[in-house]
């Protein structure tokens, strides 16, 4: 398994023809001194304090030269973990295809073993009764399709992207166990499961012998449901936590303080951040948080990420970026992840 990607590259070397223009990428030799790696729950897997998600900015609608610049910059800074799902794009699937091309061009050979690549299935991916949710039929077909798009023969983490109220939890978890045993994934994870559903999933997976190592919930200063039981459960069961949309899709950055820029997620037609979410009330809060961040010598984005990283139950924070500049800014959060009691109190007052 360790050299699976290398074997794949050798097998398909003949079909790859745009390698020459990017032959020059050499990862930074000091990349592993740039970031901390945290243990994912009780597993053997270490993840960087910040991970990069490819939900937006890596689809066919996006500039591919920016996309590969972001991936290379991230890796140069020690970000080894890249998160995908079957439906990321647009169009759905194109983020995996485009990332697969970047991998093959820039990360061929042994670098596959230095990367942690995840994918998921759960949301609608194709028409008909087998194109979404949590059946064995859908999850296995979807993972096979993801591997083809990524041009890989395994992902490191495969997630059930959302709980399925109509498929027995036993079936969904047995499928995760199966894909790990078959070598198509190295670890199993769940996403968007509430605390009660998570407990059920952990119990079944443990019994099957493939423990769930990670949970991917939505968590940020603006969305805090995980504090109401899930984080405690993850700690108790030795499961890692990788919060998604930690910047509330860009709201928790300086970006919307003076209106909606045309090139922002809220400004773009295909972006998932709705214009209505950038309202007077939210922007008012962001302005107050921005002042607290300035007092800490941080940008608002940096403070929002540090605020999540202060909790030791958080393994890695899963960010998105549309430029290298944003990634640079966000990496700056690592310089200060502690908060005084007074700062925490001020933040709570704003968020209340
Ligand atoms: P964030 O909350 O980090 O939002 C990212 C967006 O914020 C960027 O695309 C950019 O938007 C803006 N931004 C980021 N940094 C800065 C900065 N320094 N200054 C100004 N603006 C900035 O995360 P996402 O919502 O993108 O989610 C991250 C990842 O989480 C996804 O890629 C995916 O892997 C995962 N995810 C998982 C889900 C699940 O159900 N499991 C659901 C959603 C996400 P702009 O384009 O406006 O520049």
What secondary-structure arrangement, pairings included, does this model have?
Blueprint: H1 4-12, E1 37-39, E2 46-48, E3 50-53, H2 64-76, E4 81-83, H3 94-106, E5 116-121, H4 136-150, E6 155-160, H5 169-181, E7 185-191, H6 195-208, E8 212-216, H7 230-237, E9 240-241, H8 280-295, H9 300-309, E10 317-319, H10 324-331, H11 341-351
Parallel strand pairs: 3-4, 3-10, 4-5, 5-6, 6-7, 7-8, 8-9
Antiparallel strand pairs: 1-2
NADPH dihydro-nicotinamide-adenine-dinucleotide phosphate binds at residues 53-57, 83, 161, 191-192, 216, 244-250, 253, 255, 264-265, 301, 318-322, 326, 329-330.
Beta-strand residue percentage: 5-15%
Low-pLDDT stretches: 1-22
Give the SSE string.
HEEEHEHEHEHEHEHEHHEHH
User: What is the CATH topology classification name of the domain at 35-250 and 313-322?
Assistant: TIM Barrel
Question: What is the second-level CATH architecture of the domain at 35-250 and 313-322?
Answer: Alpha-Beta Barrel
The distinct bound ligands, ions and cofactors come out as: NADPH dihydro-nicotinamide-adenine-dinucleotide phosphate
- The average pLDDT is 93
What's the total count of β strands?
Answer: 10
Backbone shape: globular
In whole angstroms, how far apart are the ends? 49 Å
Radius of gyration: 20 Å
């Amino acid at each position: 398994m360790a050299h699976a990607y290398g074997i794949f590259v050798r097998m398909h070397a003949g079909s790859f023809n745009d390698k020459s223009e990017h032959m020059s990428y050499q990862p930074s030799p000091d990349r592993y001194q740039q970031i901390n790696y945290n243990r994912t729950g009780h597993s053997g897997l270490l993840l960087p304090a910040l991970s990069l998600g490819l939900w937006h900015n890596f689809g066919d609608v996006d500039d591919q030269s920016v996309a590969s610049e972001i991936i290379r910059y991230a890796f140069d800074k020690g970000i080894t973990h890249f998160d995908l799902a079957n439906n990321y794009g647009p169009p759905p699937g194109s983020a995996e295809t485009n990332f697969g091309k970047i991998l093959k061009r820039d990360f061929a050979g042994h670098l596959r073993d230095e990367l942690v690549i995840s994918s998921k299935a759960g949301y609608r991916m194709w028409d008909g009764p087998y194109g979404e949710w949590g059946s064995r039929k859908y999850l296995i077909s979807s993972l096979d399709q993801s591997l083809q798009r990524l041009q890989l023969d395994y992902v490191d983490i495969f997630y059930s992207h959302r709980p399925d109220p109509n498929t027995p939890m036993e079936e969904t978890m047995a499928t995760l166990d199966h894909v790990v045993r078959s070598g198509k994934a190295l670890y199993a994870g769940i996403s968007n499961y509430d605390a009660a559903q998570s407990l059920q999933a952990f119990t079944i997976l443990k019994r099957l012998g493939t423990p769930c190592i990670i949970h991917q919930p939505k968590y940020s200063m603006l969305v805090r449901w995980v504090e109401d039981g899930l984080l405690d459960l993850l700690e108790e069961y030795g499961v890692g936590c990788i919060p998604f949309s930690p910047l509330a899709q860009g709201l928790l950055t300086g970006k919307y303080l003076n209106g909606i820029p045309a090139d922002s997620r809220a400004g773009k037609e295909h972006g998932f951040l709705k214009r209505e979410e950038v309202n007077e009330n939210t922007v008012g809060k962001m302005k107050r948080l921005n002042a607290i961040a300035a007092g800490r010598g941080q940008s608002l984005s940096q403070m929002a990420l540090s605020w999540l990283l202060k909790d030791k139950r958080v393994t890695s924070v899963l960010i998105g970026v549309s430029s290298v500049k944003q990634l640079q800014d966000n990496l700056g959060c690592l310089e200060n992840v502690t908060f005084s009691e007074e700062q925490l109190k001020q933040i709570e007052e704003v968020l209340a």
